[in-house]
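Late entry, evening session. Most of the bench is empty. Finally got around to the prediction I had been postponing all week. Sequence below, unchanged from the version circulated by S.P.
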Amino acid sequence: MYIDISYMPPRTLETKLNIYLSEILNSKLGIQSISETSRSNKRPDILIYVGGFKIVLEGSYTKKDAEYDVRAKIDGGLVMLGLLSGTKKK
């Protein structure tokens, strides 16, 4: 599925994008997810629940930062699987 976010201003906060993506996962794809929720000091961008598994989706402007965030969530026991998405700044 392709989601066009090109209409959003370049300085759109990452938090808003995470909330928007979680709403699409829930309403359009029927995937149970929550975004920007606090879990102790670990705040996943989007937490997805599929068949009893917890999956984190982390987005960042750099691949290195997203990889670090996903690894921290897995190593910290928050989730079992992580996905990452990098975005280029304009």
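Two things to note before I forget:
The radius of gyration is 13 Å.
Residues 54 and 79 are 5 Å apart (CA to CA).
Will write this up properly tomorrow.
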